[in-house]
Every structure is written in structure tokens, then in C-alpha cells.
Amino acid sequence: MIGNESQNPELHDELTAYLDGELDAEAVRRVEERLARDPAYHAELQKLERAWDLLDRLPRSAVNESFTKTTIEMVALAASDDAAAAQQARPRRAKHLTAALGAVAAALVGFVAGHFLWPNPNAALLRDLPVIEHFELYYQADNIDFLKLLESEGLFAEQEGEHGG
Amino acid sequence: MLDVRDDNAAAFDELMLRYQNRLVTVLEHLVGRRDQAEDLAQEVFLRVYRARKRYVAGAKFSTWLYTIANHVAANALRSSSRRPEVNLTARPTESGSSNVLDKMALAASGAMPARQLDKAELRDIVRAALAGLSERQRMAVLLNKFEEMSYADIAVTMEMSPQAIKSLLSRARVNLKEILEPYLQDGHKPK
Questions:
Q1: How far apart are CA A149 and CA B148, in angstroms?
Q2: A42 vs chain B: nearest CA distance in angstroms?
């Protein structure tokens, strides 16, 4: 018998799910079996069902044409606002893109111009590095033709080999 | 809805015509006032339109619609609860009763003569019983009763688990049964 069980939430969960057709086949079989042998359980189900059926007495709303018209107008207005916003955003986006491209181009032109107008001072040093490295030696020779003669004799090649080895 | 997503205005009008009465019905029983329900329904349709690009093919439109409606109604009820003049259970009714539940209590006390409830009274009693449920219970009941939604669909709409919806509806049914018990005895107001 149902007895104090009528306060049991699990019992009501089960009956509610049964009434809503949300139980699986096995649970339905169990509920129906108990309904057949337990009058109190059956009465509880009927009370729940009758209270639920009373909700059918609640009125259903029916809107008038003015509601439909106003809503469609509101949505149409929103659609045109969206379209206008998108159109406004488009030139703004194009303007931003042009500005960004202009900045990149200016930076590129600046770099190239700088490269040609202001030669790198380190480039001259790098070019003269072999001379700078042997400056002491050249200074002592005092004569460029004499040095060239020594180079043709292979004297410096021997020294370079020693340095390299 | 896919046509609406692809900016077909006629498709939106059709959807609106199909759902407007149903939506206003649910919202009216949820917030308790017809004018407010219509305002909220318009807001829901506007939000549906604005969110149309996010609609995923295969999703149930009714679930999507009522998810938005649930949010809109919850916000409205939160705002209403901050304004003391709005009271769902004590609102005036068509039959002239200022508080149907008080009348029911009076009837239950035996101070009123027994007689068959007329249709308007019964409707007011049921309406008051529904208003006596919590906001969530009310929404679940309305979706289940009026929209014939499954627990799974109500769960998606209300962003809860199906198990939680099962308990919510069970509690709602028990509360309704208890509130309506005097009438449920034999269809008459008790002596």
C-alpha cells in the first residue's frame, strides 16, 4: 500500500513520468502491475492526472492583426538598421585597410631610400678589413709595388697557410 | 527556419504567424499579464531574427524559440520582482476576484456555500494554481502541457538535465494537485 509513501518524491517522479509517457517499457510494466494491485497508488495517479487535466481550462491567447503587423514592422526596421550598419562599416573597413597598406608602403619606401641615401658605414670597414688586419705589415713595407712583387713570389700565401694551420 | 537564416523575409512572417499565439499563451501564463506577454513575444521574435545566422540546421525551431523566450521571460520576471506592485498571485481576474487562492481557502474553511464552480471561477482557480508554482516549474509545465515537449526538449530549452526536468515536473504536478485538492474532491467547492 502507498501509505506514507504518498510523500515520497520518487513515487511521484515515477507516476509523473508514466503519465507523460517518459518511462521505458520495463518501468511501464512495473507501474501498471502496481496500479492493478494497489488502490492507493492508483488513486494517487488519478489525483495527479485530474489536476493536470484542469490545466486544459486555461485560456489560449490569440493575438490580433495589430500585434502581427507591429512585430513584422519591428523586425523590418531591425533588418534595415542591420543593413545600414553593415554598409557604414564597409567604407570604414576599407578606410582602415587603405591606411594600413599606406603605412606598410611608406615603411618600405623609407627603408629602401635610407639604404641608398645613407650607405652603411660598416660596409666600408668590412671591405677594408684585410688591409686593416695587415696594416702593420703594409706600413713597414712602405712600397706597394714591392709588396705586390712579394705576393707574386708566394710569400703571403705561406704566411696565410701558417695562420690557417 | 533555414530560409529565415538565408534572409527570406516571407519565411520569417510565416514562422511568426505559426508561433505567435502559442508563444504569447506561454508567456502570458508565465508572467501573468497579457500586455507584457505581447511585448515579450515581440522581443523574442526580434531576437530570433537577429540570431538567425546562428541557427544550426537540424535543430528544432520550437526548442530554439522557447530557449530565447525562457531567457527573455526570466529577465522580465527578475525586473518585475524588483517592482513590488507586480504580483502574479494577487492580480485582478476576469471574474472579479482579487485573490482566487484566498477564495479557495475561504471555501475550504466551510464559510462559503457549496455550489458548482462556474467556468470563469474554475479558470481563475487553475490560473492561480499555476501562478503558485515556481517560475521554473511553471515554464516546464507550460512547455510540457501546451507545447507537448518531451523531457529532453524541455531540458534543452531550460538548459537543465532531463533528470532535473523529470523532478521539476513531478514537483509541479504534486503542487498543482495540492492546490487544486478542494476542487478535485468532487468538482464542488467543499462546505
A1: 109
A2: 15
Residues 6 or more apart from A85 whose CB is under 8 A from it?
Answer: none
How far apart (Å, rounded) are the C-alpha atoms in residues A106 and A101? 9
Tell me which of 1.10.10.10, 1.10.3720.10, 3.30.70.260, 1.10.630.10 is the CATH number of domain B90-191.
Answer: 1.10.10.10
pTM of structure: 0.68
Enter the ipTM. 0.78
> Which chain A residues are closer than 8 Å to B177 by Cβ?
47-48, 50-51
What residue spans in chain B does CATH classification 1.10.1740.10 cover?
A: 1-86
A60: chain B residues, CB-CB within 8 Å: 21, 25, 146
Tell whether A67 lies on the interface with B, counting CB pairs under 8 A: yes
pLDDT of residue B188: 55
Residue ranges, comma separated, of all CATH 1.10.10.10 domains in chain B are 90-191
Domain B1-86 bears CATH identifier 1.10.1740.10: yes
**B41: burial class by Cβ within 10 Å (0-12, 13-18, 19+)?**
buried
Residue type, A85: A
